[in-house]
Design a protein that fits this description.
The chain has about 325 residues and is mainly alpha-helical. The chain has 14 helices and four strands. It binds a DNA duplex (21 and 21 nucleotides) through α7 and α10.
DNA sequence: GGACTATATTACATTACCTCA
DNA sequence: CTTGAGGTAATGTAATATAGT
């Protein structure tokens, strides 16, 4: 069961819910960004893909979105100055210019300009940055000629075009591997602890906060969920392995005990025909207790007989080995 | 109300890149 | 300098849910 904090109506398309609401929220973030949105919507066609397609249709007003870039962040911006966007919005303490800034490994390619969030809904933009202008131009071409108005396709195009447009990748043939900075990873990690999935608004806010593309945030959460699941699987596997070893050992011990009892039966038939009432089981601890009448005989019996007291409970009541995950889920559901 | 379509989201498998020993 | 392993960002695809017609 996942609890998610939602500040917007996630059921509505992002282009309508977020952009329309952004100015009305009157947060400093929205004002500082100063983005202007123009949506071209064909009459009678309300679907997102038609809107996103923008300049493809000659009679439609191209989607236009201008957003001033973020104010550069000082190199040594500490992590603690990051704010969870969805929390900051409600508190009004958002740092609109918060970003990862320079990365510990000095990979500027990670720094996607402030328009990043607009690529999520296929918006075009302009920026003095080289990567930005490159992206802008190529995006116009691809969205106009591709015929794929799909939001995800456009986003993917934007990703690829954005990579190609980076200064570090001039041939455009290689896939750029962007290493997230420690600060970005830590912030994403903290965010993941809050909730392992993001609604579109949270994703956009996080992307803006960390100066990443929304797609990057989305991918990071996908991979993070996969890692979590993999780790849990490993834990469960290890637990099962231990259970298996325990049961194997117990089985071996019981087999040995059975052999000894059989041997005892053949050597001392009279002793083994003692009435069953000489053995009693404690209802609370489920241990076998020997009665006074059989105490002397039990003392002379092999040590295997004593072991039976501890192994009987297993036979009487099968053990259940729930996964730690199942326990955690049960505990979570109960709480 | 059911069928169909479009879109969005997610899990999952895989690839590609980067770092380091 | 080369190489292989491990980590992880990114990609592709199928399944599923939801909304609109």
């Amino acid at each position: 069961m996942e609890l998610a904090l939602s500040l917007g109506d996630s059921s509505k398309p992002f282009t309508a819910s977020f952009i329309d609401k952004a100015p009305s929220t009157s947060t400093s973030k929205a004002k500082d960004l100063e983005f202007r949105v123009g949506l071209g919507i064909n009459a009678g066609e309300g679907r997102g893909k038609d809107v996103i397609r923008g300049g493809a249709d000659s009679d439609a007003v191209p989607l236009q979105l201008d957003l001033l870039p973020f104010t550069p962040v000082p190199h040594s911006k500490p992590l603690q100055q990051f704010r969870f966007p969805w929390l900051a919005e409600t508190l009004g303490s958002a740092e609109p210019d918060s970003s990862a800034g320079e990365h510990s490994r000095g990979l500027d390619v990670n720094r996607f300009p402030a328009f990043a969030e607009e690529t999520d809904d296929g918006g075009a933009h302009s920026s003095p940055n080289s990567a930005v202008s490159s992206f802008h131009m190529e995006f116009g071409i691809s969205s106009g000629s591709g015929g794929r108005g799909n939001k995800r396709d456009l986003e993917a195009d934007a990703e690829r075009d954005g990579s190609r447009g980076s200064d570090d990748d001039e041939n455009g043939l290689t896939r750029k591997k962007l290493r997230l900075s420690k600060e970005q990873s830590a912030f994403l990690e903290e965010s993941f602890k809050e909730h392992s999935t993001l609604n579109p608004k949270q994703k956009l806010a996080l992307a803006k906060q960390l100066n990443l593309r929304p797609r990057q945030v989305e991918v990071w959460f996908q991979n993070r969920r996969a890692r979590t699941k993999l780790k849990q699987t490993e834990i469960d596997c290890e637990y099962l392995k231990r259970c298996c070893e325990t049961l194997t050992e117990e089985n071996r011990r019981l087999q040995k005990e059975l052999q000894e009892l059989r041997a005892l039966k053949t050597s001392q038939p009279f002793y083994m025909q003692l009435p069953a009432t000489t053995l009693t089981m404690c209802p609370s601890c489920e241990r076998v207790a020997t009665s006074s009448s059989s105490a002397a005989a039990a003392a002379s019996a092999s040590s295997a007989a004593a072991n039976s007291a501890t192994t009987l409970p297993l036979l009487a009541k099968p053990r259940v080995y729930p996964f730690p995950q199942a326990q955690a889920q049960a505990h979570k559901a109960a709480s």
